[in-house]
Design goal:
The structure holds 2 protein chains of 2 kinds. Chain A is of the alpha/beta class. Chain A folds into 3 domains: about 5-70 and about 105-175 and about 290-355, FAD/NAD(P)-binding domain, CATH 3.50.50.60; about 180-285, D-Amino Acid Oxidase, Chain A, domain 2, CATH 3.30.9; about 370-430, no CATH class. Chain A has helices at about 15-25, 55-60, 60-65, 105-120, 165-170, 195-205, 245, 255-260, 265-270, 320-340, 345-355, 360-365, 370, 380-395, 405-415, 420-430; strands at about 5-10, 30-35, 50, 70-80, 85-90, 100-105, 125, 130-135, 140-145, 150-155, 160, 185-195, 210-215, 225-230, 235-240, 275-285, 295, 300, 310, 315. In chain A, strands 5-4-13-14-15-12-16 form a 7-stranded mixed sheet. In chain A, strand 9 and strand 10 (about 150-155) form a beta hairpin. Chain B is an alpha+beta fold. Chain B is about 20% helix and about 25% strand. Chain B is built from 4 helices and 6 strands. In chain B, the strands form 3 sheets. Chain B has a two-stranded antiparallel sheet. A two-stranded antiparallel ribbon of chain B has the order 2-5. The chains are: A alpha/beta, B alpha+beta. Chains A and B meet through helix 4, strand 12, strand 15, helix 8 and strand 16 of A and helix 1, helix 3, helix 4 and strand 6 of B.
């Protein structure tokens, strides 16, 4: 195996492959390392692949060439208790034609395709390669070593795109040595097989339309939420939990997932489906406040490794931020090669680029969203409040009705307390 | 859905050596053991009788939950499996 490259990218996920593609297109000799037997083998998400304007520039035929599933034309949110649910939904023709706003995808297919694009551009993809250390020379990063393989891979610059736990960023001293469980979540997902026609009929979809739904109040009091996404002929259904809340709950993710799937309103949606695959992964949900140092001498950090994930509770974005950061990291490395300078000072241009982009602007703008999502009442009291209020409004049983404003006041006082409600409203207002 | 079945639908290529190794002294003295309930793959089991935490690595989804929730840093080793080993998602 060749040992010397102009750049090494650790991790062939959306961030790493976007970085490798950008550098290879500019003529750099790039190694793209992946610990799986193929890119995407280790990767899971909810999830939606949102619009990625920057990858469309690099790969103009992106939306027709990439292996995508349904486009998301319909989005819903369901507030639920054990017995009741209140559902709101948005649908627009504007999300039903190209350029689409988002797609469902399968990561083992999509990530593999994106890595292949980098290979087509000239990058060297090395699979089954788990990087276990950085090579340091004169106080700067000069390459990596791979577990179980002799020798070193040498390059003047390394892009750490090795995922949420980024041991590369840790080794380079760029991230905190210990994560705060309050800034992390874990997602668990069941992939459920279902005939295409059944999905179309059940969710009111035609052509390649897809549906995405979030659920609140379905996590047994643990901070978190549920999701359901339609693929062509399967559903991705699962739950996300905040780890600080899960670890003290004495509840298990799989029991809660099972209870979620058995909740009467959800059971109807998955009825007849067959389980195909169960998966789980940690998500960096701390937002702007948990972003590590993004550059060092000879190193840049991108994607989940840089905690570039925007979980506001309304939209859940990650791959689009990862890919954009990878492209910006790639461009910065190309520039560094032109100057033949891989010092932190030169690579800082990556951080400046990110700061000027929508990635950091969004993360900064929603920097208070994690605080809002730590309000425990969102996950129990508010769904109960909404469901109970709606039941009172809709119930007609021969007794006089309470006026709706009076009913709202009564329910709010009873379920959460007026003071809490006002404080939560303010927190949410600031967050969003 | 049957919970026991849920784990049977994920594929693995199992290595000979565990990629995560615990320091049992630390686990025995832990006041939380959030790993045991938080692990989505049911890899951690605390035995009250033996005062011992057992970690079964061959069903590990490499999700990172235990790495984050363990506040005692009980890991003698926490790494991903060697390249080519471990969980292999097909379509998730």
């Amino acid at each position: 195996m060749k040992k010397q490259f102009q750049a090494i990218v650790v991790g062939a996920g959306p961030a790493g492959s976007s970085a490798a593609l950008t550098m290879a297109r500019a003529g750099l000799d790039v190694a793209l390392l992946e610990r799986g037997t193929f890119p995407g083998e280790k990767n899971m998400f909810g999830g939606i692949l949102h619009r990625m304007a920057s990858i469309e520039e690099v790969v103009p035929e992106f939306w027709t060439a990439a292996p995508l599933e349904r486009h998301i034309a319909k989005k819903g949110t369901t507030f639920m208790t054990g017995e009741a649910s209140f559902h709101v939904q948005h649908e627009t023709v504007n999300f039903d034609h190209a350029p689409y706003n988002g797609y469902t995808i399968f990561r083992p297919r999509f990530d593999r395709w994106l890595a292949e694009e980098a290979v087509k551009a000239g990058a060297t993809l090395i699979t089954r390669a788990m990087v276990d250390d950085l090579v340091l020379k004169d106080g700067r990063i000069a390459g990596v070593t791979i577990a179980g393989r002799a020798g070193e891979l040498i390059a003047p610059v390394v892009v750490a795109a090795d995922g949420v736990l980024s041991f590369i960023a840790k080794r380079a001293g760029l991230r905190q040595p210990k994560f705060d469980a309050g800034q992390m979540a874990v997602g668990v997902k069941a992939l459920i097989d279902m005939p295409r026609e059944v999905i179309d009929d059940r969710f009111g979809l035609v052509r390649d339309q897809g549906f995405a739904n979030e659920f609140v109040g379905c996590t047994g009091g643990v901070r978190g939420g549920g999701f359901l996404y339609t693929n062509y002929d399967s559903l991705s259904v699962g739950l996300v939990f905040h780890l600080a809340s899960l670890r003290t709950s004495a509840k298990t993710p799989y029991d809660l997932l099972n209870a979620f799937l058995e909740q009467p309103q959800v059971a109807k949606l998955v009825r007849g489906g067959r389980l195909q695959e169960y998966s789980a992964h940690v998500i960096p949900e701390g937002g702007y406040n948990m972003i590590p140092e993004l550059v060092g001498n000879g190193i840049l950090v991108a994607g989940d490794a840089a905690a570039l994930c925007n979980a506001t509770g309304v939209n859940l974005e990650g791959i689009n931020l990862a890919s954009h950061s990878g492209i910006l990291a790639g461009r910065t490395v190309v520039e560094a090669h032109e100057r033949n300078d891989f010092s932190k000072t030169t690579l800082k241009r990556y951080k400046e680029r990110l700061d000027l982009s929508w990635v950091m602007k969004d993360l900064k703008g929603f920097r208070n969203a994690p605080k809002m999502l730590h309000i425990d009442r969102i996950y129990n009291e508010y769904p109960e409040l909404v469901c109970s209020m709606m039941e009172h409004i809709y119930r007609i049983d021969g007794t006089p009705k309470t006026s709706i404003p009076k009913l709202i006041m009564r329910e709010v006082k009873e379920k959460v307390g007026l003071k809490n409600a006002i404080s939560d409203l303010l927190t949410a207002w600031r967050a969003l | 859905m049957n919970i026991d079945e849920i784990f049977d639908f994920t594929s693995f290529t199992i290595d000979r050596e565990p990629h995560i190794v615990l320091d049992n002294q630390v686990c025995a003295g832990c006041d939380n053991r959030g790993c045991a309930n938080s692990c989505p793959a049911r890899c951690y089991t605390w035995s009250e009788a033996e005062q011992k935490m057992t970690f079964v690595y061959d069903g590990c989804l490499e999700c990172g939950t235990c790495y984050v929730v363990c506040h005692k840093n009980a890991f003698i080793r926490w790494s991903y499996p060697r390249g080519g080993f471990g969980v292999a998602y097909r379509m998730t």
